Amino acid sequence: MRVFIERSGQWRELQAPDVSSLLVLLGLDPGTVLVVRNGSLVTVDELLEAADEVRVLSVVSGG
Amino acid sequence: MQCSRCGQKAVFDSPALCAGHFLEHVEQTVQSTIKQYSLCSKADRVCVAASGGKDSAALLFILKRSGYRVEVLAVDEGIAGYRDRTLEDLRKLCGDLQVPLRVVSFRDEVGGSLDVLAKGRHPCSVCGVFRRYLLNKYAEGFDVIATGHNLDDEAQSVLMNVIKANHTMFFRSHVRTPPAEGFIPRVKPLMFLTERQVLAYTVLRGLRIRYGECPHVPLALRARVRDVLNEYEGSDPGMKRRLVEAALHVAVQRPASLVRCGVCGQPSAHQVCRACVLKGELAGGAS
Protein backbone atom coordinates (compact mmCIF):
# COMPACT_ATOMS: atom_id res chain seq x y z
CA MET A 1 0.00 0.00 0.00
CA ARG A 2 1.06 3.62 -0.47
CA VAL A 3 1.80 5.32 2.83
CA PHE A 4 2.34 9.06 3.27
CA ILE A 5 4.24 10.07 6.39
CA GLU A 6 3.33 13.67 7.00
CA ARG A 7 6.16 14.64 9.30
CA SER A 8 8.87 13.70 6.81
CA GLY A 9 6.73 14.53 3.79
CA GLN A 10 7.59 11.16 2.22
CA TRP A 11 5.57 8.53 0.38
CA ARG A 12 6.57 4.90 0.98
CA GLU A 13 5.40 1.56 -0.37
CA LEU A 14 4.79 -0.76 2.60
CA GLN A 15 2.82 -3.86 3.56
CA ALA A 16 1.15 -4.38 6.95
CA PRO A 17 -1.98 -6.33 7.98
CA ASP A 18 -3.37 -3.55 10.17
CA VAL A 19 -2.70 -0.01 11.41
CA SER A 20 -1.05 -1.19 14.62
CA SER A 21 1.49 -3.29 12.68
CA LEU A 22 2.12 -0.42 10.27
CA LEU A 23 3.00 1.93 13.13
CA VAL A 24 5.37 -0.65 14.61
CA LEU A 25 7.00 -0.94 11.18
CA LEU A 26 7.42 2.84 11.06
CA GLY A 27 8.61 3.05 14.68
CA LEU A 28 5.82 5.47 15.62
CA ASP A 29 4.02 5.81 18.96
CA PRO A 30 0.24 5.47 18.30
CA GLY A 31 -0.35 8.25 20.83
CA THR A 32 1.49 10.79 18.67
CA VAL A 33 -0.17 10.16 15.30
CA LEU A 34 -3.54 9.81 13.58
CA VAL A 35 -4.07 7.47 10.65
CA VAL A 36 -6.32 8.21 7.69
CA ARG A 37 -7.17 5.24 5.43
CA ASN A 38 -8.60 6.07 2.00
CA GLY A 39 -9.75 9.44 3.34
CA SER A 40 -11.30 8.20 6.60
CA LEU A 41 -9.93 8.47 10.12
CA VAL A 42 -9.34 4.98 11.57
CA THR A 43 -8.23 3.35 14.84
CA VAL A 44 -5.20 1.08 15.36
CA ASP A 45 -7.17 -2.17 14.94
CA GLU A 46 -8.24 -1.25 11.39
CA LEU A 47 -7.32 -3.93 8.82
CA LEU A 48 -5.36 -2.74 5.79
CA GLU A 49 -5.30 -3.93 2.17
CA ALA A 50 -2.68 -3.73 -0.55
CA ALA A 51 -4.67 -1.20 -2.60
CA ASP A 52 -5.11 1.21 0.32
CA GLU A 53 -3.76 4.72 0.48
CA VAL A 54 -2.78 5.57 4.05
CA ARG A 55 -1.77 8.92 5.53
CA VAL A 56 0.01 9.07 8.88
CA LEU A 57 -0.62 12.51 10.43
CA SER A 58 1.68 13.89 13.09
CA VAL A 59 -0.13 15.19 16.16
CA VAL A 60 2.79 17.38 17.15
CA SER A 61 2.85 20.65 15.30
CA GLY A 62 2.84 24.34 15.95
CA GLY A 63 5.22 25.97 18.34
CA MET B 1 -13.04 -0.84 17.89
CA GLN B 2 -16.63 0.22 18.57
CA CYS B 3 -18.12 3.50 19.68
CA SER B 4 -18.74 3.36 23.43
CA ARG B 5 -22.03 5.22 22.98
CA CYS B 6 -23.73 3.63 19.96
CA GLY B 7 -21.71 0.54 18.98
CA GLN B 8 -20.91 1.86 15.50
CA LYS B 9 -17.36 1.72 14.15
CA ALA B 10 -15.08 4.03 16.16
CA VAL B 11 -12.81 6.55 14.43
CA PHE B 12 -11.01 7.58 17.62
CA ASP B 13 -9.69 5.51 20.51
CA SER B 14 -9.40 7.75 23.55
CA PRO B 15 -12.34 7.90 24.13
CA ALA B 16 -13.59 5.23 21.70
CA LEU B 17 -16.20 7.09 19.64
CA CYS B 18 -17.68 7.12 16.14
CA ALA B 19 -17.34 10.30 14.06
CA GLY B 20 -20.64 11.80 15.14
CA HIS B 21 -20.18 11.14 18.83
CA PHE B 22 -16.55 12.28 18.73
CA LEU B 23 -17.49 15.67 17.25
CA GLU B 24 -20.25 15.96 19.86
CA HIS B 25 -17.79 15.05 22.64
CA VAL B 26 -15.27 17.72 21.57
CA GLU B 27 -17.87 20.46 21.23
CA GLN B 28 -19.54 19.55 24.54
CA THR B 29 -16.15 19.58 26.30
CA VAL B 30 -15.53 23.10 25.01
CA GLN B 31 -19.03 24.23 26.04
CA SER B 32 -18.70 22.78 29.53
CA THR B 33 -15.27 24.39 29.99
CA ILE B 34 -16.69 27.77 28.93
CA LYS B 35 -19.60 27.36 31.34
CA GLN B 36 -17.70 25.95 34.32
CA TYR B 37 -15.03 28.67 34.26
CA SER B 38 -17.26 31.53 32.98
CA LEU B 39 -14.94 32.11 30.01
CA CYS B 40 -17.29 34.18 27.86
CA SER B 41 -20.94 34.78 27.02
CA LYS B 42 -22.77 35.08 23.70
CA ALA B 43 -22.93 38.85 24.30
CA ASP B 44 -19.13 39.21 24.60
CA ARG B 45 -16.84 40.35 21.80
CA VAL B 46 -14.36 37.47 21.59
CA CYS B 47 -10.96 38.00 20.01
CA VAL B 48 -9.58 34.65 18.84
CA ALA B 49 -5.78 34.75 18.83
CA ALA B 50 -5.09 32.54 15.85
CA SER B 51 -2.13 31.27 13.89
CA GLY B 52 -3.85 29.06 11.34
CA GLY B 53 -2.59 25.91 13.02
CA LYS B 54 -4.94 23.14 14.12
CA ASP B 55 -5.63 24.44 17.63
CA SER B 56 -6.72 27.95 16.76
CA ALA B 57 -8.56 26.69 13.66
CA ALA B 58 -10.58 24.24 15.76
CA LEU B 59 -11.21 26.89 18.42
CA LEU B 60 -12.42 29.43 15.86
CA PHE B 61 -14.64 26.87 14.13
CA ILE B 62 -16.27 25.70 17.38
CA LEU B 63 -16.84 29.20 18.79
CA LYS B 64 -18.30 30.46 15.50
CA ARG B 65 -20.49 27.36 15.15
CA SER B 66 -21.68 27.81 18.74
CA GLY B 67 -22.85 31.35 18.04
CA TYR B 68 -20.17 33.44 19.75
CA ARG B 69 -19.28 36.93 18.42
CA VAL B 70 -15.76 36.18 17.18
CA GLU B 71 -13.10 38.15 15.33
CA VAL B 72 -9.58 36.95 14.65
CA LEU B 73 -6.25 38.55 15.49
CA ALA B 74 -3.07 36.96 14.14
CA VAL B 75 0.54 37.88 14.81
CA ASP B 76 3.01 37.40 11.97
CA GLU B 77 6.35 36.94 13.73
CA GLY B 78 8.18 36.58 10.45
CA ILE B 79 9.30 32.95 10.67
CA ALA B 80 10.35 32.05 7.14
CA GLY B 81 8.75 28.94 5.63
CA TYR B 82 6.40 28.47 8.57
CA ARG B 83 4.14 31.37 9.52
CA ASP B 84 3.48 32.42 5.93
CA ARG B 85 1.92 29.00 5.27
CA THR B 86 -0.25 28.95 8.40
CA LEU B 87 -1.46 32.50 7.71
CA GLU B 88 -2.48 31.43 4.21
CA ASP B 89 -4.63 28.65 5.74
CA LEU B 90 -6.03 31.11 8.30
CA ARG B 91 -7.08 33.62 5.62
CA LYS B 92 -8.97 30.87 3.82
CA LEU B 93 -10.68 29.65 7.01
CA CYS B 94 -11.73 33.17 8.03
CA GLY B 95 -13.09 33.72 4.52
CA ASP B 96 -15.06 30.46 4.63
CA LEU B 97 -16.48 31.28 8.08
CA GLN B 98 -17.00 34.97 7.22
CA VAL B 99 -15.07 36.08 10.28
CA PRO B 100 -13.07 39.36 10.30
CA LEU B 101 -9.28 38.86 10.40
CA ARG B 102 -6.55 41.31 11.38
CA VAL B 103 -2.86 40.45 10.96
CA VAL B 104 -0.18 42.47 12.76
CA SER B 105 3.51 41.81 12.19
CA PHE B 106 6.73 42.01 14.18
CA ARG B 107 8.25 43.73 11.15
CA ASP B 108 5.82 46.66 11.32
CA GLU B 109 5.40 46.81 15.08
CA VAL B 110 8.79 45.88 16.49
CA GLY B 111 11.10 46.72 13.63
CA GLY B 112 12.11 43.30 12.35
CA SER B 113 11.12 39.67 11.85
CA LEU B 114 11.72 37.13 14.60
CA ASP B 115 14.36 35.48 12.43
CA VAL B 116 16.32 38.76 12.55
CA LEU B 117 15.45 39.89 16.11
CA ALA B 118 16.31 36.55 17.71
CA LYS B 119 19.89 36.39 16.49
CA GLY B 120 22.02 35.74 19.58
CA ARG B 121 18.93 35.39 21.77
CA HIS B 122 16.53 32.66 22.74
CA PRO B 123 13.85 32.97 20.03
CA CYS B 124 10.97 31.69 22.18
CA SER B 125 11.62 34.37 24.82
CA VAL B 126 11.68 37.18 22.25
CA CYS B 127 8.61 35.79 20.49
CA GLY B 128 6.59 35.34 23.69
CA VAL B 129 7.21 38.89 24.94
CA PHE B 130 6.23 40.57 21.67
CA ARG B 131 3.28 38.27 20.95
CA ARG B 132 1.70 39.04 24.35
CA TYR B 133 2.36 42.76 23.84
CA LEU B 134 0.75 42.86 20.39
CA LEU B 135 -2.24 40.73 21.35
CA ASN B 136 -3.13 43.01 24.24
CA LYS B 137 -2.50 46.16 22.20
CA TYR B 138 -4.67 45.17 19.23
CA ALA B 139 -7.41 43.37 21.16
CA GLU B 140 -8.42 46.60 22.87
CA GLY B 141 -12.23 46.84 22.95
CA PHE B 142 -12.74 43.07 23.12
CA ASP B 143 -14.06 41.40 26.27
CA VAL B 144 -11.73 38.39 26.15
CA ILE B 145 -8.87 36.95 24.12
CA ALA B 146 -9.44 33.24 23.40
CA THR B 147 -6.35 31.15 22.71
CA GLY B 148 -6.04 27.61 21.37
CA HIS B 149 -3.99 26.19 24.25
CA ASN B 150 -4.79 22.50 24.68
CA LEU B 151 -4.18 19.97 27.45
CA ASP B 152 -0.74 19.06 26.11
CA ASP B 153 0.35 22.71 26.04
CA GLU B 154 -0.77 23.19 29.63
CA ALA B 155 0.80 19.99 30.95
CA GLN B 156 4.07 20.97 29.27
CA SER B 157 3.97 24.44 30.84
CA VAL B 158 3.32 23.03 34.31
CA LEU B 159 6.22 20.59 34.10
CA MET B 160 8.55 23.20 32.60
CA ASN B 161 7.81 25.57 35.48
CA VAL B 162 8.60 22.79 37.95
CA ILE B 163 11.84 21.90 36.16
CA LYS B 164 12.91 25.56 36.10
CA ALA B 165 11.75 26.06 39.72
CA ASN B 166 9.61 28.90 38.38
CA HIS B 167 7.25 28.75 41.35
CA THR B 168 5.48 32.04 40.69
CA MET B 169 4.34 30.79 37.28
CA PHE B 170 3.47 27.35 38.64
CA PHE B 171 0.91 29.00 40.90
CA ARG B 172 -0.56 30.99 38.00
CA SER B 173 -2.09 28.20 35.88
CA HIS B 174 -5.50 29.32 34.70
CA VAL B 175 -8.37 28.65 32.32
CA ARG B 176 -9.27 32.34 32.55
CA THR B 177 -6.79 34.95 33.78
CA PRO B 178 -7.85 36.87 36.90
CA PRO B 179 -9.00 40.46 36.25
CA ALA B 180 -6.32 43.14 36.05
CA GLU B 181 -6.55 46.80 35.06
CA GLY B 182 -5.98 47.28 31.33
CA PHE B 183 -5.28 43.59 30.74
CA ILE B 184 -7.82 41.81 28.54
CA PRO B 185 -8.63 38.42 30.12
CA ARG B 186 -7.19 35.37 28.34
CA VAL B 187 -9.39 32.28 28.14
CA LYS B 188 -8.55 28.74 27.06
CA PRO B 189 -11.68 26.84 25.93
CA LEU B 190 -9.63 23.86 24.59
CA MET B 191 -7.76 23.33 27.86
CA PHE B 192 -9.29 19.92 28.58
CA LEU B 193 -8.83 18.48 25.09
CA THR B 194 -5.64 16.70 24.08
CA GLU B 195 -3.64 17.85 21.08
CA ARG B 196 -4.53 14.55 19.39
CA GLN B 197 -8.26 15.10 19.94
CA VAL B 198 -8.00 18.60 18.48
CA LEU B 199 -6.24 17.31 15.36
CA ALA B 200 -8.85 14.55 14.94
CA TYR B 201 -11.58 17.21 15.18
CA THR B 202 -10.01 19.25 12.35
CA VAL B 203 -9.69 16.10 10.20
CA LEU B 204 -13.32 15.11 10.74
CA ARG B 205 -14.56 18.65 10.12
CA GLY B 206 -12.54 18.84 6.90
CA LEU B 207 -10.56 21.89 8.02
CA ARG B 208 -7.49 22.29 5.82
CA ILE B 209 -4.54 22.21 8.19
CA ARG B 210 -1.11 21.62 6.73
CA TYR B 211 1.52 20.07 8.94
CA GLY B 212 4.00 22.56 10.27
CA GLU B 213 6.31 22.88 13.21
CA CYS B 214 8.02 26.10 14.19
CA PRO B 215 11.70 25.75 13.19
CA HIS B 216 12.70 27.20 16.56
CA VAL B 217 10.94 24.43 18.53
CA PRO B 218 13.91 22.00 18.50
CA LEU B 219 15.79 24.64 20.51
CA ALA B 220 13.11 24.74 23.16
CA LEU B 221 12.89 22.91 26.47
CA ARG B 222 9.22 22.46 25.58
CA ALA B 223 10.07 19.94 22.84
CA ARG B 224 11.96 17.72 25.28
CA VAL B 225 9.22 18.00 27.93
CA ARG B 226 6.61 17.15 25.27
CA ASP B 227 8.38 13.91 24.39
CA VAL B 228 8.74 12.87 28.04
CA LEU B 229 5.05 13.57 28.77
CA ASN B 230 3.93 11.61 25.70
CA GLU B 231 5.99 8.64 26.83
CA TYR B 232 4.48 8.70 30.34
CA GLU B 233 0.96 9.25 29.03
CA GLY B 234 1.34 6.12 26.91
CA SER B 235 1.93 3.99 30.00
CA ASP B 236 -0.30 5.99 32.37
CA PRO B 237 -3.30 7.41 30.46
CA GLY B 238 -4.81 10.50 32.05
CA MET B 239 -1.53 11.65 33.55
CA LYS B 240 -1.49 14.94 31.59
CA ARG B 241 -4.97 15.85 32.80
CA ARG B 242 -4.11 15.04 36.42
CA LEU B 243 -0.99 17.21 36.18
CA VAL B 244 -2.99 20.17 34.86
CA GLU B 245 -5.77 19.71 37.43
CA ALA B 246 -3.19 19.64 40.23
CA ALA B 247 -1.73 22.93 39.00
CA LEU B 248 -5.18 24.51 38.75
CA HIS B 249 -6.00 23.29 42.25
CA VAL B 250 -3.09 25.17 43.83
CA ALA B 251 -3.21 28.18 41.51
CA VAL B 252 -3.65 31.59 43.10
CA GLN B 253 -6.59 33.33 41.41
CA ARG B 254 -6.16 36.76 42.95
CA PRO B 255 -6.04 39.77 40.61
CA ALA B 256 -2.58 40.66 39.35
CA SER B 257 -1.19 43.99 40.45
CA LEU B 258 -0.35 45.86 37.25
CA VAL B 259 0.68 49.40 36.38
CA ARG B 260 0.82 51.18 33.02
CA CYS B 261 4.16 50.96 31.20
CA GLY B 262 5.84 54.37 31.29
CA VAL B 263 6.82 54.07 27.62
CA CYS B 264 3.90 52.46 25.73
CA GLY B 265 1.04 52.63 28.27
CA GLN B 266 0.29 48.90 28.11
CA PRO B 267 -0.37 47.04 31.40
CA SER B 268 2.82 45.81 33.01
CA ALA B 269 4.14 44.33 36.24
CA HIS B 270 7.00 46.85 36.06
CA GLN B 271 7.40 50.58 35.38
CA VAL B 272 8.59 49.74 31.87
CA CYS B 273 7.13 46.59 30.26
CA ARG B 274 9.27 43.72 28.96
CA ALA B 275 8.40 44.56 25.35
CA CYS B 276 9.71 48.12 25.68
CA VAL B 277 12.83 46.96 27.54
CA LEU B 278 13.50 44.41 24.80
CA LYS B 279 12.83 46.94 22.04
CA GLY B 280 15.36 49.28 23.67
CA GLU B 281 17.96 46.52 23.89
CA LEU B 282 17.44 45.54 20.26
CA ALA B 283 17.66 49.17 19.10
CA GLY B 284 20.89 49.58 21.08
CA GLY B 285 22.37 46.37 19.69
CA ALA B 286 22.70 44.86 23.17
CA SER B 287 22.45 41.10 23.43
Protein model, in words:
The complex is a heterodimer of chains A (63) and B (287). With 63 residues, chain A is mainly β. Chain A contains 1 helix and 5 strands. Chain B is α/β, with parallel strands linked by helices and 287 residues long. Chain B is built from 12 helices and 9 strands. Chain B has helices at 19-36, 54-65, 83-97, 106-109, 114-117, 123-138, 151-163, 167-170, 195-205, 221-235, 239-250, 274-284, and strands at 12-13, 16-17, 45-49, 69-76, 101-105, 144-146, 186-187, 259-260, 267-268. In chain B, the strands form 3 sheets. In chain B, strands 5-4-3-6-7 form a 5-stranded parallel β-sheet, with helices on both faces. Chain B has a two-stranded antiparallel ribbon with strand order 1-2. Chains A and B meet through strand 4 of A and strand 1, helix 9 and helix 10 of B.
For the secondary structure, the number of strands of chain B is 9
How much strand content do the residues of chain A show?
25-35%
How are the strands ordered across the major sheet of chain A? 2-1-5-3-4
Distance between the termini of chain A: 32 Å
For the CA atoms, what is the radius of gyration of chain A? 11 Å
Largest sheet of chain B: 5 strands, parallel
Structural class of chain B: alpha/beta
The percent of residues in helical segments of chain A reads 10-25%
SSE-based structural type of chain A: mainly beta
Mean pLDDT across the residues of chain A is 94
E-strand count of chain A: 5
Question: What percentage of the residues of chain B does DSSP assign to strands (E)?
Answer: 5-15%
Order of helices and strands of chain A: EEHEEE
User: Greatest contact pair?
Assistant: A-B, 21 and 30 residues
Features:
heterodimer; A: mainly beta; five-stranded mixed sheet; B: 287 residues; alpha/beta; five-stranded parallel sheet; two-stranded antiparallel sheet; 12 helices
Provide a compact summary of the structure.
The complex is a heterodimer of chains A (63) and B (287). Chain A has 63 residues and is mainly beta. Chain A contains 1 helix and 5 strands, in the order ββαβββ.
